[in-house]
Amino acid sequence: MKEMVRVASGQGFWGDLLTAPVDQVRKGPIDYLMLDYLAEVTMSIVQKQRQRDPSAGYARDFISLMREILPDCVEKDIKVLSNAGGVNVEGCAEAIKETARELGLGGKLKIGVITGDDILPRLDEFAEKGIELTNMDTGEPLAAVRDKVQAANVYLGAAGLVEALDEGAQIVVGGRLTDTGLTLAPLMHEFGWQFDQWDLISSGTIAGHIIECGAQASGGNCQFEWESIPDMANVGFPIVEASPDGTFVVTKHEGTGGRVNVQSVKEQLLYEMGDPKAYITPDVVADFSSIHLEDAGKDRVRVYGITGNPNTEFYKVSIAYSAGWKAVGTLVYSWPDAFKKAQAADRILRERLDRLGLKFDTVLTEFVGVNATHGHLAMHDFRSEAKAADLRGNESFTSLVTRNSSLSDIPEVQLRIGVRGQNKDDVTRFTKEIAPLILTGPPAVTGFAGGRPKVEEIMAYFPALIPKNVINTRVQIVDA
Question: In this structure, are 278 and 177 located in the same domain?
């Protein structure tokens, strides 16, 4: 048994810094590289890709990355775990095989392939068997949106990953594998942890939670003294140095930018935490209230004292379904009276949409530079004053805003207006009503060089639970 295992984060989402996994492999020692590509909305994206092209449906960035780092991984015996397979895990594995052979690495590595999370083809089977899927937030039955469902994937835990590693896989790829499982599995494999050792499994899960979002644990998106964080252009992604007793240190490679300290780790721990005593995963119910953090030196935080509780009999299911169409358009109005001009343009556009008889579920306007980031909070003082003025009957909210120097002197305001609705034609017509404002609305407008807004299909999220005993996880080992 190793005394210490290093698991490095290389991607926090599909689209994260492309150089990060390369740096993790080349700038210092690691044993495992975990790459998290999937979010809830990503599953519907890859499902649509596969509908258009049966060979698609996975994160193609993963393949180009493997082409760059696979020789290093083979030479240094670094194992890679990823959920880049999306809804076409077999296709992703085949692409890895082809890449390995192109690099002259054929016969030199094994690929673990984990399937079973994609239950879209089984939804009607479950319904016939009386296995009800109910929206965890609303209580709505799946039947209410069944004809609109685009993707349905179970969050699989570490079990398949551990099995693949135990069977000698150097590259392991799956679909909707949990972010935390990608870090937990190597620790279970190396240290021989069992699935009923709840404190240890909780520790590995929390280690995974800390590094699952990449540089968010090493200085990125950090609220505390963010201006003093060094060399963010060269930010180092986090690494967990884990011990068999469940304690671990969060760190990063020497010579990289960013910062790992107690504050940066705390901020990441709060991400998507929910109930601190019951962070539920397929593998364990982790107790975040048991976590102890201490400074262990420059860019090193020791984490210890973690406890956990038995897992549940359910998997969580991420279901995405079509919920209509949307489009968002923008125009920029300049000084003087930028805010007044943007307000007038919004009013004119809404009147024209009404005259056309277009139907929308929602029409939403934001004035970027005034109220878009913090919404009503940014306008709170003015609204309170306006209410008092209205009670006196001597001034309106609009006139208050206009005479307030902090708003009337704004050099530019972006009008951002979006619509959503069930009728694609109505949404499409909305996109044709933005540009006319340039010559038929308030003066001093710019910012329309991108052309008409794009009409996009809306994907809604339907979270549900399903009994674990009806899900069949399959692990295959493929020689490259």
Answer: yes
Amino acid at 104: G
Flag whether 168 is in a domain: yes
Distance CA(172)–CA(110), nearest Å, equals: 9
Residue 261 burial by Cβ neighbours in a 10 Å radius (0-12, 13-18, 19+):
buried
The pLDDT value recorded for residue 224 is 81
Are 287 and 277 in contact, with CB atoms under 8 Å apart? yes
| pLDDT at res. 405 | 47
362 exposure class (CB count in 10 Å sphere: 0-12, 13-18, 19+): exposed
Integer Cα distance of 209 and 373 in angstroms: 27
pTM of the model: 0.89
Q: Which residues of the chain have pLDDT under 50?
A: 378, 382, 386, 392, 395, 397, 400, 405
Peptide linkage before 443 cis (omega within 30 of 0)? no
Asked whether residue 123 is domain-assigned, the answer is: no
Distance of CA 84 to the CA centre of its chain: 13
Q: Which among 287, 312, 337 is the end of a domain?
A: 312
Tokens representing residue 332 in the block: 């920029």
Tokens of residue 456, six digits: 């996009």
Residues 72 and 215 in one domain: yes
Asked if 27 and 111 sit in the same domain, the reply is yes
Total domains in the chain come to 2
**Where is the domain boundary, 312, 344, 368?**
312
Range list of H helices, 122-274: 123-128, 159-166, 181-191, 198-211, 262-270
Tokens, residue 237: 């992604």
Give Cα separations from 131 to 67, 115, 466 (angstroms): 43, 21, 8
> What is the amino acid identity at position 248?
F
The parent domain of residue 337 ranges over 322-460
Cα dihedral 59, 63, 65, 70, rounded to 10, equals: 140
Residue with tokens 């002259």: 104
Q: Do 71 and 173 share a structural domain? A: yes
